[in-house]
Amino acid sequence: MASQKDILLQVKDLKTSFFTKKGVIKAVDGVSFTVKKGEVIGLVGESGSGKSVTSLSIMRLVPQPAGKIVSGEILFKNENLLNKSESEMRELRGNKLAMILQDPMVSLNQLLTVGYQIGETFKYHGKADGSLLTKCINILKKVKVPSPETRVNNFPFQFSGGMCQRVLIGTGIANNPELLIADEPTTALDVTIQAQILKLMKDLQKEINASIILITHDLATIAQICSKVYVMYGGRIVEKAPVKDFYHDPQHPYSEGLIKSVPVLGKRVKRLYAIEGQPPNLINPPPGCRFEPRCSKAKKVCSQKYPPEVELKKDHQVSCWLYS
Ligand SMILES: Nc1ncnc2c1ncn2[C@@H]1O[C@H](COP(=O)(O)OP(=O)(O)OP(=O)(O)O)[C@@H](O)[C@H]1O
Ligand code: SF4
Ligand SMILES: [Mg+2]
């Protein structure tokens, strides 16, 4: 267990739901995890498992009016973000807490120059002074945008997707955040650009020593920059493991399925292994393990009670009846 002073973020039994006409969607249903200072965590799991809603909850940006954080605690530097006022949260966002989203073209305002948009980050947090332009140029240099002195006056549509993502990352790290959440930051980009952006994030992480929560479907990306992996399934975390254990010795049947579904680089496979069946309905989730209908190792208890989290070894926990 990490000592309290090493811990930056502690999420405890977080529950976030959407109150819709069809019913209450329990998107995040009892999620607990910690992120240490300077640690890079990968959050994985299939579409709809609650990764984005977990990160939006941390930022207190759950989509309104249907979304609501129902219960739990989000301790950031030992203070519960759920007790903060909206203006206190605004002060934290883009400053100590930052988030980078999937599609840079949508996230940037097409009508404002990139320099203006980076500059806003400084002004918003009361750090603007006469050398604002120099600061913006320095950010563009940091994220390796070529010719930053001229590019600072360009509009986003004059940039490629990869360059726009660099600008967004620049905006995210402008105020040296302590926690950066990157929700599929490379999904919209082509493969070579993805690799460049990842390298950039890795370098910047070392430079500013931020903790990062990286959400991605790409397990190869996780292997490159994360030290731990948290696996989500049906609104819960089912396994937390050091990245090496996750790849070589996954313990939860769902994690095993994820690993099997990755083609081995350079090896020809006849057919990719895919996990059969559908993810659970989050309006009326079954009382037992949510993976039970798709699990080949299920036993009787699995459909009756949700499995408790078991610590297999240091930093490796799993919620599955095979271990209880
Ligand atoms: N604005 C919303 N209104 C209603 N339900 C929502 C809303 N946003 C998300 N949900 C529901 O919450 C659940 C979790 O969604 P979330 O976006 O967190 O999944 P995800 O793991 O990020 O998936 P993906 O990999 O596709 O991004 C899903 O069932 C989704 O339908
Ligand atoms: S708890 Fe049971 S159903 Fe769920 S993953 Fe473990 S063995 Fe499978
Ligand atoms: Mg998402």
Description of the structure:
- With 324 residues, the protein is α/β, with parallel strands linked by helices.
- It has a domain of 182 residues: Rossmann fold.
- Helix content is 30%, strand content 25%.
- The strands form two sheets. Strands 6-7-8-3-9-10-12-11 form an eight-stranded mixed sheet, sandwiched between helices. The protein has a four-stranded antiparallel sheet with strand order 2-1-4-5, covered by helices on one side.
- Helix 8 links the parallel strand 7 and strand 8.
- The chain starts with 6 loop residues before the first strand and ends in a 5-residue tail after the last strand.
- The relative contact order is 0.14.
- The protein binds adenosine-5'-triphosphate (ATP), iron/sulfur cluster and magnesium ion.
- Adenosine-5'-triphosphate (ATP) binds next to strand 1, strand 2 and helix 1.
